């Protein structure tokens, strides 16, 4: 109900036109997620006439679901905290996290542009003033709203407000069904299906920002059969349409088998528990009450470790000290994803694990913390985890991010299967491949969508201005 009201408000705010008449713009953007809205705002800033095509009733896509934050190295906010991070270290972390399968040119663009993306969002009125740590990062570089609140709603609120202020036309409930090319292969627009029928958006340039395919299990399993039947953290619109449209227009798809599972998702519900919970100090214990892995290892490694535990589940365990450090946890408590106990005995009973085993795990954790590194190789242990009340959330891995996609370069130009640029076609965000390689680091997708989304908007504007 809430979603319908939000959608109606959004539609009304943008005065959505639904007539099945052709329209002509400079730049057509497919998808009103973070990448699409960043592209639309940037192209409009430069002077382009832009339309955004969104198949769902509401803006936001997977972006609005993002919880943890946006990674950026070398920001003023980090410097104010005395964090000695750098673009070089972020480059290394991202390549290493991606198992060196990433396109280094795209990673270079990502890490060197992310700080400016934070500045851009702050200048648009966003709040990304809290900086925390996420897995695979050498330093705290995850920018998020004050108090560690959810990042995605804030990024979308900021971009949506900016789009509204610029009178950018948004066509909701409107699905892109074809990227149109002329005989030479140049892109000339998009065929769309709105409430009142299909029509053509004639455009000099098209930005395909329709997101990934994590919500389409058939497509996921066609690339990675072992993920058949897996739950997903993705929104229902993450079905890979934009990839199929681009492929039909000649685009090359790369690394499609690189699909990430997120280790900490509430079983059956599909709600993802942000990595910032582990970053701020939570540990994982199995049904025997024992720790079994470095919680801050990469997502693929932590997912694999959980799948080896009894019933393929684990508990995220934290104390009130950690809970108070991260506003995002309020939602988990409110939604009853947590079990709670004033003492270790109480919480162990609620979890159904042996209290003595859980206490022993916590004692070992504290000993490791005192030494600065524990037996699982975790060096960042910010809390003693000894202040009640205590909380635990049962978690299991689910399909989270599709790292493969459209082959682009650092200007977001799309390449065909012969390795040539498709004139007039740009792509940004989760729909692209190569940025994250074999494993995406938490916080890097939000940096990706704003950084490459902005570049796509700039490049589409430049192309449209020059196009006949
Ligand atoms: C639960 C969750 C939590 C996450 N947390 C984080 C985090 O903390 N930090 C981080 O860095 N990353 C996070 N991510 C990943 C990140 O949020 C996404 O990768 C990113 O937001 C994708 O942005 P996008 O703009 O590329 O796509 P989206 O935001 O998914 O937007 C794509 C839009 O295109 C629309 N669309 C699709 N097909 C069509 C069509 N045919 N016609 C018209 N419109 C179409 C979709 O409906 C959607 O609105 C998270 C992801 C999830 C699911």
Short synopsis of the structure:
The protein has 468 residues and is of the alpha/beta class.
Describe what you observe in this structure:
This protein is an alpha/beta fold. It has two domains: 20-258 and 403-468, FAD/NAD(P)-binding domain (3-Layer(bba) Sandwich); 261-399, Flavocytochrome C3, Chain A, domain 1, CATH 3.90.700.10. Helix content is 35%, strand content 21%. It has helices at residues 2-13, 34-46, 76-80, 87-97, 104-123, 151-165, 217-223, 241-248, 276-279, 299-307, 320-325, 328-334, 344-351, 355-371, 444-466, and strands at 23-30, 50-53, 70-71, 130-132, 142-144, 169-171, 175-181, 187-194, 197-208, 253-254, 259-265, 283-285, 314-319, 338-341, 390-402, 405-407, 413-415, 421-427, 432-433. The strands form four sheets. Strands 1, 2, 6, 7, 8, 9, 17 and 18 form an eight-stranded mixed β-sheet that branches. Strands 11, 12, 13, 14 and 15 form a five-stranded antiparallel β-sheet that branches. It starts with a helix and ends with a helix. Mean pLDDT is 94; it is low at 1-8 and 10-18. The protein binds flavin-adenine dinucleotide.
DSSP strand content: 15-25%
Which regions have little confidence, pLDDT < 50, spanning 5+ residues? Answer: 1-8, 10-18
CATH hierarchy: architecture of the largest domain: 3-Layer(bba) Sandwich
Strand segment tally: 19
Number of helices: 15
Query: Can you summarize the main beta sheet?
Result: 8 strands, mixed
CATH-assigned homologous superfamily of the largest domain? FAD/NAD(P)-binding domain
């Amino acid at each position: 109900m809430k979603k319908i009201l939000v959608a109606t408000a959004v539609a009304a705010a943008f005065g959505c036109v639904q007539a099945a008449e052709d329209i002509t713009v400079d730049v057509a953007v497919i998808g009103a997620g973070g990448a699409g809205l960043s592209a639309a705002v940037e192209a409009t800033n430069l002077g382009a006439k832009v339309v955004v095509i969104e198949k769902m009733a509401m803006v936001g896509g997977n972006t609005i679901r993002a919880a943890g934050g946006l990674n950026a190295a070398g920001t003023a906010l980090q410097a104010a905290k005395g964090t000695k991070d750098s673009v070089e270290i972020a480059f290394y972390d991202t390549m290493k996290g991606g198992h060196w399968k990433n396109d280094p040119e795209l990673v270079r663009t990502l890490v060197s542009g992310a700080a400016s993306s934070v500045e851009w969002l702050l200048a648009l009125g966003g709040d990304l003033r809290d900086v925390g740590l996420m897995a695979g990062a050498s330093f705290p570089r995850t920018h998020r709203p004050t108090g560690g609140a959810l990042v995605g709603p804030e990024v979308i609120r900021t971009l949506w407000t900016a789009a509204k202020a610029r009178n950018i036309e948004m066509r909701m409930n409107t699905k892109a069904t074809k990227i149109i090319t002329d005989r030479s292969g140049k892109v000339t627009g998009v065929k769309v299906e709105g409430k009142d029928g299909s029509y053509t958006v004639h455009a000099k340039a098209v930005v395909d920002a329709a997101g990934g395919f994590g919500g389409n299990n058939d497509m996921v399993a066609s690339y990675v059969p072992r993920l058949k039947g897996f739950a997903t953290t993705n929104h229902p619109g993450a079905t890979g349409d934009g990839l199929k449209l681009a492929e039909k227009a000649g685009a090359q798809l790369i690394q499609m088998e690189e699909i990430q599972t997120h280790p900490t998702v509430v079983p059956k519900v599909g709600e993802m528990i942000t990595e910032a919970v582990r970053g701020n100090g939570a540990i994982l214990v199995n049904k025997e009450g024992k720790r079994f892995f470095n919680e801050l290892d990469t997502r693929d490694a932590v997912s694999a470790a959980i799948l080896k535990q009894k019933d393929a589940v684990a508990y995220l365990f934290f104390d009130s000290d950690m809970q108070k450090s991260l506003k995002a946890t309020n939602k988990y408590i409110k939604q009853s994803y947590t079990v709670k106990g004033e003492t270790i005995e109480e919480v162990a009973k609620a979890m159904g694990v042996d209290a003595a085993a859980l206490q022993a795990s916590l004692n070992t954790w504290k000993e490791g913390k005192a030494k600065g590194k524990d037996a699982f190789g975790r060096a960042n242990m910010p809390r003693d985890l000894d202040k009640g009340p205590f909380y635990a959330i049962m978690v299991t891995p689910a399909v989270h991010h599709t790292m493969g996609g459209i082959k682009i370069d650092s200007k977001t130009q799309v390449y065909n299967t012969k390795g040539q640029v498709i004139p007039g076609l740009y792509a940004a965000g989760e729909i692209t491949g190569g940025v994250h390689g074999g494993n995406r680091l938490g916080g890097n997708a939000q940096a990706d969508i704003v950084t490459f989304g902005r570049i796509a908007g700039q490049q589409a504007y430049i192309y449209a201005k020059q196009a006949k």
